[in-house]
Amino acid sequence: MKSDNKRLSRGVIWGLGLVVILFVNLIPFLWGAITSLKTAREVMLYPPRFWNFTTSWEHYETVLRGSFSTAIVNSVWYCVFSIVIGILCATLAAYALTRYNMRGKKTVFYLILSMIPLSMGSAAMVVPNYMLFSILRMNDHWYTLPLIYVTYNLPMSVWIMVGGMQHVPYAIEEAAQIDGAGKGYILFRLLPRMCLPTLACAALMIFIGAWNEYTVSSVLVNSQSLYTIQVSIYNYIGYFGREWGPLTASATIAVIPILIVFSLLGKLLISGLTAGAVKE
């Protein structure tokens, strides 16, 4: 009985803690979403109202009529390009690291692992990347940001794909080769089906990294026609003050794809990261 009571009390404490964490994290988003639905007059009311206000879509109309819609298309394009190229490179690298016996394989793998924290801290690489791209005259082009996003997210993607491929028995590949399958079929049709959770997890990590990135995109791209969604949100923080209505509306639009991805594919993300938690 005492052990059951202890378990019950621990469960209640953990549950209350999770509720508090959820509340603290959701309040800013809910406040912004509610503010985006208010009229311009009610946005400036003090104290702010969380209910009993006039619902209006004027801020969303203002945002989508401007350059923000172009930024949405740009971000989608950057994410798709980064996912395709990143998954292709990660698959080839992971296949080489798991299927071939070569000198320095462990050194290469540990070198890739050491790059994961560096790739996450993209702000630390802004100045070197800007100088390099300026010398190569690769700033402010349609391919500038996708190349950066692929490079930043590739170490994590390779690590995840290595973990997934290590769980695929080589006997399956041998059986496919006996049946006449070539390397192309094995790499791009057989293994992706066998490593679907890790493949989806790597794609999700690239998508999140590309969609949420702000620092590099605000420096390496100067043309408004190439802005990402995160840079366009910052445009509503003007010199004469913040445009709270359009600002909260654009921020809400930017968060919605992340919420959809996590709600639909969150299990694949967890299973893929679990499969990647291996030692070489």
Description:
The structure is a single chain. Helices cover 75% and strands 1% of the residues. With 280 residues, it is an all-alpha fold. Helix 1 (2-36) packs antiparallel against helix 13 (244-276) and helix 4 runs parallel beside helix 7. The protein is globular, with a radius of gyration of 23 Å. The model is unreliable at 276-280 (pLDDT under 50).
Envelope shape: globular
Percent in helix: over 70%
The SSE string, one letter per element, is HHHHHHHHHHHHEEH
- Mean pLDDT across all amino acids: 84
Question: What's this entry about, in short?
Answer:
The protein has 280 residues and is mainly alpha-helical. Helices cover 75% and strands 1% of the residues.
Helix and strand topology:
Elements: H1 2-36, H2 40-43, H3 58-65, H4 68-99, H5 105-120, H6 126-135, H7 144-166, H8 170-178, H9 183-194, H10 196-212, H11 215-220, H12 229-234, E1 237-238, E2 241-242, H13 244-276
Antiparallel strand pairs: 1-2
Helix pairs in contact: 1-13, 3-13, 4-7, 4-10, 5-7, 7-10, 7-13, 10-13
